[in-house]
Write a structure and sequence with these properties.
Distance between the termini: 45 Å
Largest sheet: 5 strands, parallel
Helix content: 55-70%
Number of strands: 10
Structural class: alpha/beta
Strand order of the largest sheet: 2-3-4-1-5
Number of helices: 45
Shape: flat
């Protein structure tokens, strides 16, 4: 193990179900053999060893054996060390009997673990079979899938007494759990995806990639998350040796197929069969080196594991790789280059193989790469253009790629030059739309508006006026001027079929849907968001630049503000994963909106993770407009978790950034500082910060942000100051969140226990668990003062249940409630029986107690749980399940 890896403990995480199933099967009386089967590196041996250790702790006698190709040539070679020395097997019957007697003398049943069971010799199999039949031995074996098994081994594995558990590769969530357990902190979602893709979910490959990445510094903790630096994933020598050994036995014609796939990607089976026999393809598939799949009307083959490609490419010389790429480009051209991405493939292969390509082909390929959001490839293709072919179209493509990758200043220079050379409305619009995007990220509102106005004075067509008017609305809302922006977007048609100009319509629809959510019209926002998404999916990709999933941004915001928080989080996470790695701006905003949704739900650890995700992405491209809400949000999360140092660190970075506004209210960005003051005990200062933020939100028309900030003031001890305005805001908007906040403030101001309970139930229903916990806690406090301890305890229990979904958080309202005393073991036993319908008499008979004792325990349980009868008791236990 290299430097930096000695402190990492690679845990048996993600195999909990398999481990439990293995131990259960192994210790079952009827089981004589348990086989853990899976591909190389799947973690079979590690799982078997853990299972063996657990069995030993349960009293079984355990031993280990390892089969191997060398030991297979020697009878009993795998298990000889388990037998008494000098045992004579010249007479198999006497020898087997002596072995059985020796093992039986130990008293307990033996469990013998045999690693790589497919390599065991036949004599060892016969001995194990007889020992199993005699009830002296259980066999715990590992078996590599795809390996041929002899008939003798088949006999060991046949019958009801032999069980098999297949160990599959990790899925994405399993990979995520393993990485967090091994590294001791959350791992960025993109990094997890990269590691999952590179390892294919294979535990051995995953571990070696992580070790290699840490040793080289490619994987390191940045802020709250472990993140990979961009570029190639390093591996370890051990992993290289494992993969090389896996590929070492392929024949020359098989290696030719593998090399072609490794260099040029998936290949058509029919075209490969023109060069090699179908048996070659079948052999590679049987050896699990390739996978055959149907793609539309085409059957293709690809490598079975991504790391095979790395090893195969490294083994080729530059000349060999170039020859394969040139041959592939010739082949595609000879077939007419009819597929949509053929121009991109040909240009990429020609450029890589020869350093040049036809300029028209390069430009066509760059357009295709841009539609796929592959901005590094866009730059690589366009940089190969001769200077006299760097048209306005090419400059716009390059400027957009530079902007998406965070090279703001260079992008502005390129786009300014393109603007000066632009001729005609089409070129002016193309330059302006992209230039405005770039200016929005780093420049004040005036700069983006000025660029748009310059273009408006230059165009002469109706399409030009329409596009730039929509673009002005987009600029205003993107910079937080919601009311004005929505006024500009009133020209949008309500259906793409009636839209005069599709591309600006799509941008306008996305922006309008965002704006409607921000002013509280969440139902109408959802309608517009769905229109935009449906239109995008139905239209051809050539008219569009961003990912389809980017159109989900307003949908997620509308669901959240509408009070459907769980659904908003699910939709947001799914859209985030769909967004291309290079869809940087849309992906960052989606991360912020998922984080914000979890914050409003009160699920603070999840919110903190998603804010950290957005920060990591935004730092890579120095996107201030996204860094600011993400840093403020993370500070708020850390503060309510009591992590004052992390909150202060986030706010230090926040205040060091230039004040560049985004579509979220500037007032809402006071949340981080306000909750830090709460954590410090400065409630008055916190309320003043929130009041200032609410005034700012009101000035720009951010109804939902104003409601959020005023509700926080109510939660921090001054509900009477905000009740009236929150009630007015609830009437301005729709959805469930605005009225819930207004009702919470009203109930707090009135100290009305019943209203607090009602609003708590309302908050639970919409998924606002922290607000629900606070309402229950406040209700409990009122009830205790009123001398109703049992009802107060019930409210406290409900508050605790809500808080359990929020993580380790504490706010002033939840801190007031007294944690109810837990049930004793006997109280829980009796209460559970009563909840299931048993009478006190039957419980007393079952437990050998008096009826009076049962009733005393039952009444204490009632008091602790805040209930008064068995029906309510049953509800408590049902909720626990």
């Amino acid at each position: 193990m290299g430097a930096g890896t000695h402190s990492i403990s690679w845990p048996l995480i993600g195999r909990d179900d398999e481990l439990a199933a293995s131990l259960s099967a192994l210790t079952d009386r009827s089981t004589k053999a348990l086989i853990l089967a899976g591909p190389a590196g799947a973690g079979k041996t590690r799982l078997a060893e853990e299972c063996l250790a657990l069995a030993a702790r349960q009293g079984f006698s355990v031993r280990q054996a390892t089969a191997s190709a060398a030991a297979k040539a020697v009878p009993l070679g795998a298990v000889a060390h388990l037998l008494p020395p000098g045992m004579d097997f010249s007479n198999p019957v006497r020898g087997f009997a002596a072995a059985a007697a020796s093992l039986r003398s130990g008293g307990n049943c033996w469990i013998i673990m045999v690693d790589d069971l497919h390599l065991i010799d036949a004599t060892s199999i016969v001995l194990l079979r007889q020992l199993m039949d005699a009830g002296i031995v259980k066999v715990l074996g590992t078996l590599r899938t795809g390996e041929p098994l002899c008939e003798t081994l088949h006999s060991l594995l046949r019958g009801d007494s032999a069980q098999r558990i297949d160990i599959d590769a990790f899925d994405f969530s399993g990979t995520e759990r393993v990485l967090r357990g091994a590294l001791g902190a959350p791992v960025g979602r993109r990094t997890t995806q990269d590691l999952f893709n590179a390892s294919g979910g294979n535990p051995l490959y995953l571990r070696e990639i992580v070790y290699g990445a840490i040793e080289t510094g490619a994987l390191r903790k940045q802020g709250e998350l472990w993140e990979l630096a961009d570029g190639r994933l390093p591996t370890t020598r051990r992993l290289a040796e494992v993969i090389t050994a896996r590929l070492s036995h392929v024949k020359e014609d098989e290696r030719h197929v593998l090399n072609r796939i490794a260099v040029c990607g998936a290949q058509s089976v029919s075209e490969l069969c023109q060069k090699v026999s179908p048996e070659v393809i079948d052999g590679l598939e049987s050896a699990a080196l390739i996978e055959v799949a149907e793609e539309r009307q085409r059957v293709t083959v690809r490598l079975a594991h991504p790391l095979y490609g790395e090893t195969l490419r490294e083994a080729l010389s530059t000349a060999e790789r170039n020859a394969l790429m040139a041959e592939e480009a010739d082949r595609i051209e000879s077939h007419g280059a009819r597929r949509r991405d053929d121009a991109l493939r040909i240009a990429s292969y020609r450029l890589a193989a020869t350093g040049t390509a036809d300029p028209r082909l390069l430009l066509d390929a760059a357009r295709l790469a841009s539609h796929s959001n592959d901005y590094p490839r866009v730059l690589a293709l366009l940089k190969a253009l001769p200077d006299d072919h760097l048209s306005v179209d090419a400059q716009v493509l390059m400027g957009d790629a530079l902007f998406q990758m965070g090279h703001w200043t260079t992008a502005e220079g390129m786009l300014s030059a393109a603007g000066a050379a632009a001729q005609g409305d089409e070129e002016v619009l193309a330059v302006t739309m992209t230039r405005v995007e770039n200016l929005l990220g780093r420049a004040p509102l005036s700069a983006a508006l000025e660029a748009n106005m310059e273009a408006l004075s230059a165009v002469t067509s109706t399409v030009g006026w329409y596009t730039l008017t929509v673009n002005e609305g987009y600029i205003l809302i993107s910079k937080g001027n919601v009311t004005e922006g929505l006024q500009r977007l009133e020209i949008l048609e309500d259906d793409v079929q009636r839209a005069r100009y599709v591309t600006p319509w799509l941008r306008g629809v996305l922006t309008k849907a965002l704006g409607l959510s921000l002013v509280g019209h969440t139902r109408l926002s959802a309608v517009w968001a769905q229109r935009g998404y449906d239109a995008y999916v139905d239209l051809t990709q050539e008219v569009l630049a961003p990912d389809a999933a980017a159109q989900k941004l307003p949908w997620v915001l509308a669901l959240c503000e509408g009070g459907m928080m769980a659904r908003a989080a699910r939709e947001g996470e799914a859209a985030y994963d769909q967004l291309s790695e290079f869809s940087s701006v849309a992906r960052m905003w989606m991360s912020v909106l998922v984080a914000r949704t979890q914050w409003l739900a009160g699920h603070v650890p999840l919110a903190r993770h998603w804010y950290a995700e957005a920060i990591a992405l935004a730092r890579k491209v120095e996107n201030t407009i996204i860094l600011r809400p993400a840093l403020s949000g993370l500070a708020a999360c850390a503060a309510v978790q009591g992590d004052i140092a992390a909150a202060e660190s986030s706010l230090d970075e926040f205040y060091a950034l230039p004040e560049i506004a985004g579509f979220l209210s500037e007032g809402e960005l006071q949340e981080g500082r306000a909750w830090l003051e709460v954590a410090r005990g400065n409630l008055t200062e916190a309320r003043e910060l929130l009041a200032g933020g609410a005034a700012s939100a009101r000035a720009t028309g951010h109804v939902t942000a104003e409601s959020l900030l005023l509700a926080d003031i109510a939660r921090l001890g001054a509900p009477q100051d905000v009740v009236q305005r929150l009630t007015e805001l609830a009437e301005e908007g729709d959805g469930a969140l605005l009225p819930a906040r207004a009702e919470l403030a009203t109930a707090l101001a009135a100290s009305d226990a019943q209203r607090l309970r009602t609003v708590a139930l309302q908050c639970e229903e919409i998924g606002a668990d922290l607000l629900a916990a606070e309402a229950y806690s406040a209700s409990a406090e009122v009830l205790r003062r009123a001398g109703e301890p049992r009802a107060a305890t019930d409210a406290e229990n409900r508050a605790a249940a809500c808080l359990a979904r929020c993580g380790d958080v504490r706010t002033p309202l939840t801190a007031r409630s007294i944690a109810p005393a837990p049930l004793t073991e006997r109280e829980r036993e009796i209460a559970a029986a009563a909840a299931s319908g048993a009478s006190s008499k039957s419980i007393a008979a079952e437990l050998h107690l008096s009826v009076r004792t049962v009733n005393n325990h039952l009444h204490r349980a009632y008091a602790k749980l805040g209930v008064s009868d068995r029906r309510s008791l049953a509800g408590v236990f049902e909720a626990e399940r």
